[in-house]
TrEMBL record, chain A:
Protein name: Trafficking protein particle complex subunit 8
Every TPPC8 first Ig-like domain range: 259-412
Residues of the TPPC8 second Ig-like domain: 463-582
Limits of the TPPC8 C-terminal Ig-like domain: 772-897
Organism: Trapa natans
From TrEMBL, chain B:
GO cellular component: cytoplasm
Protein name (record): Trafficking protein particle complex subunit 2
One GO process term, biological-process aspect: endoplasmic reticulum to Golgi vesicle-mediated transport
InterPro entries per UniProt: Longin-like_dom_sf, Sedlin
Organism: Trapa natans (Water chestnut)
Span of the signal peptide: none
Pfam families: Sedlin_N
Length: 931, 82
């Protein structure tokens, strides 16, 4: 008091030791306190003062009962001392010590501690925040909610922007809760929004947060407020918009095919935009007059489908109701800027009312769809929303809105920043930004054809022939005309003709009894093979539909994607769109069913006859097939069964079957009335089945079989040498349905397998026939028998062939070991041996000679004959053989060597061999002794 | 150990990279944020202390009630605190 601190200090020191010894703690502590103060005032050795204060404090706390107040006071003194020395950190520590565990008291102290940390240099913000939180906690415990909120709010700023998620969640959650407790639900909701996206927390915590959020929101009483909810997460890049302008789709599968594929496919069908340019002036004017494409076009009354992905990051499931698009429909003459302003103002809370009004006004002109769904925990769902404009104008899809649990509304704007495009007059870049893709110019109602192919199968067996109907219906007011259709795979799907309507399947394929063949000939095409023009009288009027037959033939096994484009023009002259296209897409799987292969070999006896071997394999595992008919196409081929009474059996699954036929070539006769050189060549048909109605042969010259066959010929084309050397076969069979499968429909199911370009040429171009007697009676007692044979050679190649025929008397098996012992052929018999021969019976001598050492037959004419044979010509060569004893002999011991002279540059050396040797074929001669 | 120890790795810019509860008892939710608070606050001290000493392992830099915070600083100022 008198400011004589040193004196006071010394006195205090004396007393303190006394008190300490006496264990008068309270007084001791008090003295320590005063000592500390004195030191402080003396302004030196602050360490001592600190030490004293600490001492005092501790003593108060420990030893003095109910000394908290004293301790607090002491502590506060201490803190003040420290603060003046700018030792805020220690001060904060002291505050912390003072804080203890009592609620309000500690709360205040902790708060003070936090401020100390703030003041310290450098400011310890984290400690500040932490202690604020602690103090807030204590405030809450002592029911000082407002103070708690206050401290927590101060703490929020520390943790904002950090990624210490648990801390932030804790802070926000508690603030939210306390606000709710106070009844300030608005603020509570704001804070709860911060904790909504808490996917890192446990499931129970997530549920708790979510429930609280909903609770608070409901209590705020605002039902229609459009908030920027972070939940659920919407992926803007997943936005998919499907609309139809002049390109329409028949099914959703057609939509998923890429646009470039459709464009390249449609090129032929759509009339090209540019007309003939005569000079460069016109070219210039076209460029300047063309206005840039601003927006997409859609039609009144047709839907625009938008697919958006909603993602739920939490582990709990969120029920969403009322998901729909936010759209704006404005008049076409409006300036684009006003719309942009309104779009920007959509999310502003002040303008939300304006936006709501606008939505209300436009509700009559736009029909939106409403979707409800439940997002499971962690799942991503694609939600498809539909908007249908009912009036013309400009339609903009702005965003999407939804409601969580029926109460909380949220919205999401697709365009984050509506930017104004600056376009200069010179260069107009076609920058289609994101917002442009969502802008549509709605034009007045146009007709839209709906197309459907009835009963198109998804899984078929290879070779199946099916009759399908394409139905196009026009439900609008305007008629369409000039229909064109293009099919991507004419090998699989082909157009029928109008005559096919009246006849049932499969009767329309079959031959009409009687000699005259009438019926639809193969269709006329325009341009390429796959574009089909509907006859001009086909105009689909309003409300009517057009049906057209289609033929489907599954040519090869595998997976087939069929693309079909239908082009039609609109009769109404006023509308801006002149034509539309309907795109159809079908995917089907073709399973292997019957595999057929043919082998032809020329018959040696007649060059115009061939032996056909047909191998059929049933490659399915459960279906049985019955073969009905085999037809041959080509230059006047006639096919017949070798055994007319034989019928091939039912081909069960997994079985294979071989059959032989005879194929004859007719010479061309020009004066037959039935042959028409343009269309169907005469073929042959062989009935294979055992059905009684013999008239039901299929006519392979009629469309569609002939159309499919022509396609198959194109696809199966190998390096053939021209029409005269190949023949085509068609095998028609039908599926026999199992009795065990009651669910399968029993409509007749025919399969046609086409084998094209079967070569009739054998391995060698030279063929020959040996003519001569097969049976001879001869009296061997008179002399040996000489038989004359004639060999007719035929050169079926295109070049001159030099042929050499070698007759060999040795066995053609080449038994060279026994040459000396069993000499055959002509050889010199030495005279000594000849004399030894007795002459009792010449035949027996001859026999013994022959049997011991010679072959019973000997070729006696020239042993080697050489000749040149021109292309396609025949020659005859005499042969002679001597027979010495009766028996049956196989005269095949000769060889034919041939060499084809090369044509020059034209001949392909790899296709046919140019030389070869063929052994003789068996020719049996029976000589019977007639003595 | 009666309580669990919380181990956090914090990057240079005060972003927690890794968090783990080590110990035999089941993790409690309410203790989770408390641990985060303590360790987060301890970073203040660490930041001053790290520049004063060349040692990397700073043991027991801070206390809160009965929980002790010890820190290991790497050369890139990544704090591994427990």
């Amino acid at each position: 008091m008198l400011r004589d601190y040193e004196l006071a200090l010394s006195n205090y020191r004396l007393i303190s030791t006394d008190y300490k010894l006496d264990k008068a703690w309270k007084r001791y502590a008090a003295v320590q306190e005063m000592m500390g103060a004195a030191y402080f005032m003396l302004n030196h050795s602050w360490k001592e003062s600190e030490h004293c204060m600490e001492n005092a404090f501790n003593t108060y706390l420990k030893n003095v009962p109910a000394g908290h107040q004293n301790a607090t006071r002491c502590g506060l003194w201490w803190v003040e001392m420290l603060k003046t020395r700018d030792q805020f950190k220690e001060a904060a520590g002291v505050y912390f010590l003072i804080a203890g565990e009592e609620s309000l008291h500690s709360a205040v102290m902790l708060e003070q501690a936090s401020y100390c940390y703030l003041y310290s240099k450098p400011p310890m913000l984290r400690k500040y925040g932490f202690h604020l939180v602690l103090s807030g906690n204590q405030y809450k415990k002592s029911d000082q909610i407002k103070h708690a909120i206050r401290t927590y709010r101060r703490a929020v700023s520390v943790f904002k922007g950090t990624t210490w998620s648990y801390i932030k969640d804790h802070v926000h959650f508690h603030i939210g809760q306390w606000y709710a407790f106070l009844g300030l639900y608005d603020a509570a909701v704001i804070h709860m929004l911060e904790v909504l996206m808490c996917s890192h927390q446990s499931k129970t915590t997530q549920e708790l947060f979510f429930k609280n959020f909903l609770n608070f929101f409901q209590k705020t009483g605002k039902a229609c407020e459009l908030l920027k909810l972070p939940l659920p997460i919407i992926d803007a890049s997943s936005l998919k918009v499907v609309f139809e302008d002049h390109r329409t789709y028949a099914s959703s599968a057609a939509v998923s095919v890429t646009e470039s594929l459709w464009r390249s496919f449609e090129e032929e069908v759509i009339p090209s935009l540019s007309t003939a340019r005569t000079n460069w002036l016109e070219v210039q004017s076209k460029f300047t007059s063309r206005r840039p494409k601003e927006s997409n076009i859609c039609v009144v009354g047709e839907i625009i489908e938008v697919g958006v992905e909603f993602k739920n990051p939490l582990q709990i499931s969120i029920p969403l109701t009322g998901i729909s698009l936010i759209c704006e429909l404005s008049e076409r003459s409006d300036d684009g800027q006003t719309d942009a302003n309104i779009t920007g103002g959509m999310l502003n809370d002040q303008d939300s009312k304006l936006a709501a009004d606008r939505l209300l006004n436009s509700s009559a002109s736009v029909v939106l769809s409403d979707v409800d769904c439940v997002l499971e925990g962690g799942s991503t769902t694609m939600v498809k929303l539909i908007v249908t404009p009912r009036e013309e104008g400009i339609l903009k899809i702005v965003g999407v809105k939804w409601k969580i649990s029926g109460s909380v509304s949220g919205c999401y704007n697709f365009v984050a920043n509506p930017m104004k495009k600056k376009t200069t007059t010179r260069t107009r870049k076609h920058m289609h930004s994101f917002s442009d893709n969502l802008k549509f110019a709605v034009i007045k109602s146009l007709p839209k054809l709906e197309g459907l192919i009835h009963s198109i199968p998804e899984r078929v067996y290879a070779g199946e022939l099916r009759y399908l109907t394409l139905e196009l219906s026009n439900k609008s007011e305007v008629a369409v005309k000039n229909l064109k259709m293009k099919i991507s795979h004419p090998r699989f799907l082909n157009f029928g003709s109008a005559e096919h309507f009246d006849i049932n399947y499969p009767a329309c394929l079959q031959k009409i009894t009687g000699s005259k063949r009438s019926g639809p000939m193969p269709m006329q095409r325009e341009g390429s093979d796959s574009v089909f023009l509907f006859p001009n009288d086909n105009v689909i009027r309003k409300g009517s539909s057009l049906s057209w037959p289609l033929w489907f033939h599954a040519a090869v096994p595998g997976s087939v994607s069929l693309y079909i484009v239908l082009y039609y023009e609109i009769e109404d002259i006023e509308c801006s769109m002149k034509y539309r296209t309907l795109r159809m897409f079908h995917n089907m799987e073709v399973l292997p069913a019957i595999d057929v292969s043919f082998q032809l070999s020329p018959q040696p006896s007649t060059p115009q006859k061939f032996l056909v071997r047909m191998d059929v394999t049933n490659q399915t595992s459960s279906e049985d097939f019955q073969m009905d008919q085999l037809s041959s196409l080509g230059n006047q081929w006639e096919i017949s069964m070798i055994d007319p009474l034989f019928h091939p059996p039912l081909l069960m699954s997994g079985q294979a079957f071989s059959c032989f036929f005879m194929l004859k070539r007719h010479e061309k006769s020009g004066d037959s009335e039935e042959i028409s050189s343009l269309h169907s060549p005469i073929g042959g048909d062989v009935k294979l089945s055992t059905k009684d109605d013999d008239d039901s042969l299929f006519d392979v010259s009629l469309s569609p079989l002939s159309d499919f066959h022509n396609c198959e010929r194109l696809y199966q084309e190998k390096q053939s040498e021209g029409g005269s050397h190949t023949v085509d076969f068609i095998l028609i069979s039908h599926q026999v349905h199992n009795k065990n499968n009651p669910g399968v429909s029993h409509s007749p199911c025919f399969l046609s397998n086409h084998a094209c370009h079967c070569s009739i040429l054998g391995s060698s171009p030279i063929s020959w026939v040996i003519d001569g007697p097969h049976e001879i009676f001869h009296d061997f007692s008179a002399s040996f028998c000489e038989v004359s044979l004639k060999m007719t050679l035929y050169n079926s190649s295109k070049t001159v062939a030099s042929i050499r025929i070698n007759t060999m008397d040795s066995s053609h098996l080449g038994d060279s070991g026994s040459v000396f012992s069993n000499q055959e052929g002509w050889y010199n018999v030495p005279l000594e041996n000849a004399i030894k021969v007795t002459s009792d019976v010449r035949g027996t001598i001859l026999k013994s000679l022959l049997w011991e050492s010679a072959h019973p037959t000997i070729w006696s004419a020239s042993s080697s004959t050489k000749l040149q044979l021109g292309p396609g010509s025949m020659a005859e060569i005499p042969l002679q053989v001597c027979v010495f004893c009766p028996g049956t002999y196989d005269l095949s011991n000769y060889a034919v060597q041939w060499n084809l002279q090369p044509l020059g540059a034209q001949q392909n050396p790899e296709s046919r061999p140019s030389s070869g040797t063929c052994p003789g074929y068996p020719y049996y001669l029976t000589v019977i002794s007639s003595s | 150990m009666a309580t669990t120890a919380c181990f956090i790795i914090v990057s240079r810019n005060d972003i927690p990279i890794y968090e783990a509860e080590v110990g035999s008892t089941v993790k409690r939710e309410d203790a989770a944020h408390l641990h985060q608070f303590i360790l987060h606050a301890a970073q203040d001290i660490v930041q001053d202390l790290a520049w004063t000493t060349s040692a990397m392992f700073l043991k027991a830099i801070d206390r809160f009630n009965d929980l002790v915070v010890s820190v290991y600083v790497t050369a890139g100022h990544i704090l591994l605190s427990e």
